[in-house]
């Protein structure tokens, strides 16, 4: 018997770009009619303060932007570098 696959419709957080699963998050409608969805109250507060997500280290916007801002050869080097695991 084949396993049944179901798809869950997810949204993206307007601030941090994290996935929001059904039953999570909150929506904020601004005066101009734009709907902003936030995954947590932390993102909602920062979004209402008009802070840029690209300046915060924990957002996906900054993580992706840091790698994309480099030249292609530097991107490969940055992705390959890993910390060595410490054995007992």
Automatic annotation (TrEMBL):
Q: Where is the Large ribosomal subunit protein eL24-related N-terminal domain?
A: 9-63
Q: Which GO terms describe its cellular component?
A: ribosome
Q: Which Pfam families match?
A: Ribosomal_L24e (PF01246)
Q: What keywords were assigned to this record? A: Ribonucleoprotein, Ribosomal protein
Domain of life assignment:
Eukaryota
Q: Does the record's keyword annotation contain Ribosomal protein?
A: yes
- Database matches in SUPFAM superfamilies: Glucocorticoid receptor-like (DNA-binding domain)
KW Coiled coil (keyword) present: no
What family is it from? Belongs to the eukaryotic ribosomal protein eL24 family.
What name is this protein filed under? 60S ribosomal protein L24, putative
Q: Which organism is it from?
A: Eimeria mitis
């Amino acid at each position: 018997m084949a396993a049944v696959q179901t798809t869950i419709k997810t949204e993206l957080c307007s601030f941090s770009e994290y996935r929001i699963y059904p039953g999570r998050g909150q929506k904020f409608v601004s005066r101009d009619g734009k709907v902003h969805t936030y995954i947590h109250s932390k993102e909602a507060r920062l979004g209402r303060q008009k802070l840029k997500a690209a300046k915060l280290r924990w957002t996906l916007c900054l993580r992706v932007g840091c790698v994309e801002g480099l030249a292609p050869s530097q991107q490969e080097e940055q992705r390959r570098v890993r910390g060595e695991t410490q054995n007992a």
